[in-house]
Amino acid sequence: MPTTDFRVQEKYRYQNGFNSYHESEAVEGALPIAANSPQKPPYGLYAEKLSGTAFTAPRHENLQTWLYRILPASAHSPFEARESSTYNTNPENKPHEKLHQIPNQLRWDPFDIDETVDWVHSLHLVAGAGDPTMKQGVGYFIFAAGKDMGHREAFYSADGDFLIVLQHGVLDIQTELGKILVRPNEICIIPRGVRYRVTLPLGPVRGYILELYQGHFQLPELGPIGSNCLANARDFQAPVAYFDEDTDSEWTLLSKFAGHLFAAKQNHTPFDVVAWHGLYYPYKYDLGRFNTMGSISFDHPDPSIYTVLTAQSDHPGTAVADFVIFPPRWLVAEDTFRPPWYHRNTMSEFMGLIHGQYDAKTGGGFQPAGASLHNVMSAHGPDATTHEKASNADLKPMKVGEGSMAFMFESCLMVGVTEWGLKKCRKLQEGYNAESWEPLKPHFRRPERRVGEIRNGGEEKEGVIGDRSQVSHWTS
After folding, report:
1. With 0-12 CB in 10 A as exposed, 13-18 as middle and 19+ as buried, what is 11?
2. Which of 175, 214, 237, 373 could form a disulfide with 106 if both were Cys (CB 3.0 to 4.6 A apart)?
3. What is the spatial distance between Cα 126 and Cα 128, in angstroms, rounded to a whole number?
4. Fold agreement (14-97+113-287, 290-436)
5. Could you give the CA distance from residue 298 to residue 395 in angstroms, rounded to a whole number?
6. Which residues are catalytic?
7. What is the DSSP letter of 428?
């Protein structure tokens, strides 16, 4: 079946459809009929608009949702800076830290889980480009937490949309718009500004995050593929309305704002949305439902055919961020080197591994919960072991990646590495090149010359440099 066989059973209900106009009410009649902001919304609720794009964005880009809640989101104390000495995911704001721009190929061992921290304090910026204050660029994070967020804590990022790739454990996420359960081989997108709380029902968790500072994720265009395949719109799942009724308890609201952490107090739960309707909401997707395309004749296609979600720059066809996966798939191409070819790319490529073994890196250095970064024009491709096997393999139909799921964050931007990613995490592999590509051997052999063979327009004979008779097209 084209779905993941999850060990943990689903416990929530969802609405299906990507970029679909959804509406949901936890109490029947809570949604106003044919109006967004009546003088008195049903049941004494407050109407509140959550805008993910400018009001005047083109209709096909416009993302807005109306919330009907017990108390407005604005009902809290002023935000104050919190833990500025220990929590900072914007290194450009610290004189002693910066993003290091490095042409080297980089690879990290699996990142450690810190069981002493919760979701918020487990976030580590590994690499990125741009500036969230200008709503330009991306940030790549590792999370590795061992504790639930505080019983009365909520968090949101004003910097961008979180694309969460879970590698280990289970995330139980209560958002303002409803609850989402996330398991390995599922991704979850939480849009900018949506408030949520993360608990860990099965203990420690670990994974990756792409924070998109500009725009929002979309499904890629399919072109000649047609109207279906890759990630199908019907397979994305949005939550249904769920609310708590608590106006007597003190809550802490945490905000990621320009990479810094702020906190405010409020005397009511943030999760009091009784009903909502619109286009701006969190959602999840099972990577096992991805309908993979590939060559059934010859040659290895570009990896763009594995794109799940994309966020385009102002130049169509060039992405600020692509989320690409390499799922289990059949290879049948004839007379073809089947792993990815060696290449240099104008796009930067940050890869991670959820589980299994990636078919282009079989030497054991690329492990689940690890990562690699091949920056703009940094040459890379299969390691020496993989090249040797693939060059001599029996080219019968074969399935690769069984039990594996690798992914890539691809960007048109040159990605810098943080001090934490380069040194403090102590996971950067020193021998990446030595293991992967330095062992490659030359196989070039000059063809043997045959007696009487015609070359360069003349009969084969000995000559010297400058002998015009050796080159028929000599010009002076």
Report:
1. exposed
2. 373
3. 7
4. yes
5. 11
6. 300, 343, 349, 374, 380
7. B
Element (H, E) at 434: helix 432-436
Residue 148 backbone dihedrals phi, psi, to 5 degrees: -65, 155
Q: What is the CATH number of domain 290-436?
A: 2.60.120.10
205: alpha, beta or left? (left if phi > 0; alpha if psi -120 to 50): beta
For the domain 14-97+113-287, what is the CATH code? 2.60.120.10
